[in-house]
């Protein structure tokens, strides 16, 4: 039997401004994402859909999940393949395309742009190649139906 892992979160709407969802404009899209023992995440909808731009929205969280999973698996592959990474930053970008009616849409692409620093010039080629191996093991990448591209930059640590 295959191992399984479960993830329990609570999404709690905090946007009742007094009249609930009496009309499309009568409520806030604010909510919190909660999990036992973790700091709550203040969330909302995208500002294009009446959300609060100061809060995380589901689309940003999805793009962040893709980038996090890629990073964590990449670091794992580097560690097991002898590539010593000392710095990693990814400015990930997701695109949502609306359907023709404007009533719905979907994420159609995520582009990861990791900037990685390794300790030795001899590691650069392997460090680049390992990005291509991540997709086959990343839980999130294997679960989504849109393409995930990556455009990594590898640097060597300066003394």
Automatic annotation (TrEMBL):
Pfam families: OsmC. It comes from the Bacteria. InterPro entries: KH_dom-like_a/b, OsmC/Ohr_fam, OsmC/Ohrsf, OsmC_Ohr_Peroxiredoxin. SUPFAM superfamilies: OsmC-like. This is OsmC family protein. It comes from Streptantibioticus rubrisoli.
